[in-house]
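Risk register update: the risk of archive-format incompatibility is retired. Evidence:
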Amino acid sequence: MTEQERVEKVAKVMAEAVNDTSTHDPTIWGEYEDMARAAIAALAITPQEAAKVLLAAVDAFMSGEKLTEEQRELERTAVIAGAFAGGAYDRYWPKGGGEYHALTRAFLLALIDPDHAELDYLRADPSAGQTARDARAALRAISEDSHE
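Archived output:
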């Protein structure tokens, strides 16, 4: 999706959220596009900021703090990604530098999608990844059907 398509999609959602039927007016639509650009920019964070948020959630869990629902999800995401990273490092042979790429790649892939097919070789049961992907697709189809 291009940046402009993303802006238009966010602008449309914003207009629908306030039941604005005047979006056929280009001047009004432009205002929503400006707001959409500002909203997208406000949501953009650096990799360092994202890592700080994840680390704070992991540290809070490890120190026994009571976590919010969001912190629990962030901590879970980071730990799952870390487990895949550790597995990738252990499985890479011979050691000589490539293991760090494997570790980093597995970590980032697991942050994006812990069910990703490229992580299947690291699962105790590699077929479990496909089972999870199939279940997610079925749930998505059910959800989409219920919205129609």
